[in-house]
């Protein structure tokens, strides 16, 4: 296949939503319909010990929530699909935001009983800023839902998105029988299968077919027929250009857990979504001093290989205690053993350990194209946001950073076991979701951790135990804000600075000074009393 054919068949997208809307369940059903797995494991069905492919981490299996995003790559109907399941909980949103930089489209899952929830809205805003197409799935139609027209109206008024329903629900709750495909003008009636483990059998007929009238409650039939006539007459016509511009969202209805409407969604999504597009890059090094940052577009067809790392994950495979860097290919052709430049260090590296990913599983990959996400194993120097390329003028700067908002001291209760503890903590810190600092008045032997949400600390403790067999003790610290201070002579004597009570100092691993505040007021007071000091939300090497 030629390069342009390979690129054109790539579909790289993330599934996003508020916690519990059904992203992981839907991901699993896509794999089932994509023939990538043969039996779907129900997310919270712990009894028969079957877990989803996507929630592979021990903690995820236990709690039935996603803690970390997962990449699943498979071929389906000529498409090369890179599917990224993301965690919905806001404490893990940094991971989700990073994933969103690596995709070309997003599928927004909405619980049809609840409508748009806060986290959906936030993630939607991130997608909108990137201008990527967003398709919508109204899930859980097997339970009592809100009026489907009201759900569309909410998308229009709250998110400002034009909607175009592609499928329409036939009843809801116990009366939910299937969906109407507005494109083919056909009704899909489904039957439930135990646990949704297999594809749902379905029959297809026209809306006027006696079979359809027979299966549906007469009142439901009336309503549905009216709604469909109304949509045909007064709804927005499907506009592919508006979908690609992120202005119109095609809407699908169904029930992921019962496999209702999943195939129509998958087929429609792949068809209407977009292949990888050009990326913006700067010619000057990101952290370069005064060099002008000259932004330019790198087309996917650019001959030279380029890509960036958006995620690092340790210990995905308990058999190999190692660390995977997830790279999104942006241009050129990746081939195993190719030699590229690691732009942050300027060093050349041979990429010989490259993998195709499928949840926790991986297999060697010899070739990859723009849009693909590959896993690189065994390169300790790689960090989140790093560019790897054959073209030394390309520097991607895609990864958003967030100032931490919660803080805690972590320490090792078993000093005799310190090797495991330190190695584990070091590796988990490299994943970049939790940061560590030296705090000036820290309890002896403890490290200050900072994260976007408190659940991240629990994840660190849990993983230290399960992946490194290391106990840890956590003690909350009451700051809520942290800032980096630009170098200044007065930092040589911190005690001379005027600060409110509860304010403390520390340093990051590059020995830059940080300051910790209990609240907004103490920060404003600090700035007022120390007007010569410049504070930054992000690490200094990123703001320069
Ligand atoms: N009734 C019903 N329940 C569903 C449906 N789809 C998913 N669920 C249930 O909703 C719960 C949450 O599903 P998940 O797929 O884990 O949700 P998620 O969006 O991945 O959650 P996080 O990753 O933690 O944000 C599980 O108990 C699912 O079984 C559906 O179509 N109908
Ligand atoms: Mg999930």
Write the layout of secondary structure elements.
Blueprint lengths: L2 H6 L1 E7 L6 H11 L24 H6 L6 E7 L2 E7 L7 H9 L3 E7 L6 H13 L3 E6 L8 H11 L3 E4 L1 E4 L7 E4 L4 E5 L11 E4 L4 H6 L2 H17 L5 H5 L3 E6 L8 H11 L6 E4 L12 E4 L7 E9 L8 E9 L2 E2 L2 E5 L4 E5 L2 E5 L2 E4 L2 E2 L4 E5 L9 E3 L16 E6 L6 H13 L4 E5 L7 E5 L3 H14 L4 E5 L3 E5 L18 E4 L5 E5 L2 H10 L5 E2 L3 H4 L1
Parallel strand pairs: 1-3, 1-4, 4-5, 5-11, 6-11
Antiparallel strand pairs: 2-3, 7-8, 8-9, 9-10, 12-13, 14-15, 14-23, 15-22, 16-21, 17-18, 17-23, 19-20, 19-22, 24-26, 24-27, 25-26, 25-29, 28-30, 28-31, 29-30
The protein binds guanosine-5'-triphosphate and magnesium ion.
How would you describe what is shown here?
- The chain is an alpha+beta fold.
- The protein folds into three domains: 3-272, 3-Layer(aba) Sandwich (Rossmann fold); 279-396, Rossmann fold, CATH 3.40.50; 406-536, 2-Layer Sandwich (Alpha-Beta Plaits), CATH 3.30.70.
- Helix content is 25%, strand content 28%.
- It contains 14 helices and 31 strands.
- The chain has an eight-stranded antiparallel sheet. An eight-stranded antiparallel sheet has the order 27-24-26-25-29-30-28-31, with helices on one face.
- The longest helix has 17 residues, at 218-234.
- The chain is globular, with a radius of gyration of 25 Å.
- The two termini are 44 Å apart.
- Mean pLDDT is 89; it is low at 42-50.
């Amino acid at each position: 296949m030629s390069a342009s054919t390979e690129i054109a068949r790539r579909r790289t997208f993330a599934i996003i939503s508020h916690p519990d809307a059904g992203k992981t369940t839907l991901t699993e059903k896509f794999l089932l319909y994509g023939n990538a797995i043969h039996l779907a494991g129900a997310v919270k069905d712990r009894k028969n010990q079957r877990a989803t492919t996507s929630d592979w981490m021990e903690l995820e299996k236990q709690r039935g929530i996603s803690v970390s995003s997962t990449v699943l790559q498979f071929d389906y109907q000529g498409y090369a699909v890179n599917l990224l399941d993301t965690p919905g909980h806001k404490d893990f949103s940094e991971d989700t935001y990073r994933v969103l930089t690596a995709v070309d489209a997003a599928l927004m899952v909405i619980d049809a009983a609840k409508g748009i929830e806060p986290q959906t809205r936030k993630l939607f805003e991130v997608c909108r800023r990137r201008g990527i197409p967003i398709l919508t799935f109204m899930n859980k139609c097997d339970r009592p839902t809100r009026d489907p027209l009201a759900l569309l109206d909410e998308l229009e008024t709250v998110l400002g998105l034009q909607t175009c329903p592609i499928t329409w629900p036939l009843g809801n709750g116990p009366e939910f029988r299937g969906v109407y495909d507005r494109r083919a003008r056909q009704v899909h009636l489904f039957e439930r299968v135990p646990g949704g483990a297999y594809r749902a059998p379905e029959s297809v007929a026209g809306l006027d077919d006696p079979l359809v009238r027979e299966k549906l409650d007469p009142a439901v039939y009336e309503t549905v027929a009216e709604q469909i006539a109304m949509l045909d007459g007064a709804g927005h016509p499907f506009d592919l250009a508006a979908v690609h511009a992120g202005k119109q969202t095609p809407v699908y209805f169904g029930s992921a857990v019962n496999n209702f409407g999943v195939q129509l969604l998958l087929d429609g999504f792949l068809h209407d979504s977009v292949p990888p597009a050009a990326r913006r890059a700067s010619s000057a090094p990101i952290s370069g001093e005064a060099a002008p940052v000259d932004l330019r577009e790198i087309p996917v067809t650019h001959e030279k290989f380029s890509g960036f790392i958006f995620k690092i994950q340790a210990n995905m495979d308990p058999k190999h205690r190692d660390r995977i860097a997830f790279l999104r290919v942006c241009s050129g052709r990746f081939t195993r053993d190719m030699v590229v430049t690691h732009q942050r260090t300027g060093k050349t590296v041979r990429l010989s350990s490259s993998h195709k990913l499928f949840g926790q599983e991986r297999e060697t990959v010899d070739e990859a194209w723009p849009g693909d996400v590959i896993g690189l194993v065994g390169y300790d120097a790689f960090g989140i946001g790093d560019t790897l390329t054959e073209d030394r003028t390309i520097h991607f700067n895609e990864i958003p950073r967030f100032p931490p908002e919660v803080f805690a001291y972590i320490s090792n209760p078993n000093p005799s076991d310190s090797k495991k503890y330190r190695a584990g903590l070091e590796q988990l810190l490299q994943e970049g979701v939790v940061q560590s600092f030296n705090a000036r008045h820290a309890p002896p032997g403890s490290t200050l951790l900072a994260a976007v949400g408190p659940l991240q600390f629990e994840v660190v403790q849990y993983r230290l135990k399960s992946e490194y067999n290391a106990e840890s003790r956590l003690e909350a610290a009451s700051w809520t804000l942290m800032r980096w201070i630009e170098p200044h002579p007065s930092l040589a004597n911190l005690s001379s600075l005027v600060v409110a009570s509860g304010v403390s100092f520390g340093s990051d691993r590059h020995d830059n000074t940080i300051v910790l505040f209990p609240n907004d007021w103490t920060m404003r007071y600090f700035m007022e009393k120390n007007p010569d000091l410049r504070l930054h939300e992000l690490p200094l090497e990123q703001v320069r």
